[in-house]
Amino acid sequence: MKKNKTAIVTGGNAGLGYATAKKFCDQGITTYVIGRNKDKTIKACQELGENAKPFILDLDDLDKIPDAISQIVKQTGSIDILVNNAGINMKKDFLEVTSEEFQAIMHTNVTSVFVMSREVAKVMKENGEGSIINISSMAAQYGIPKVIAYSASKTAIEGMTRAMAVDLAGYGIRVNCVAPGFIKTNMSSKALDSDPERKNKVLSRTPMAKLGDPADVANAVYYYASTDSKFTTGTILPIDGGNSIGF
Question: Where is the signal peptide (predicted)?
Answer without folding.
Answer: none
